[in-house]
Amino acid sequence: MASKLESAYKSDMVRAVKAEGGYARRIEDQFGVGILDTILILPSTGAIFAEVKRFTGNFFEPSPRQWIEMQRINAGGGLSLLIGVKTGTKGPHYFHHEAKVAYVENCVVQEDGESFCDALRRWHKEQGK
Question: What is the model's pTM?
Answer without folding.
Answer: 0.90
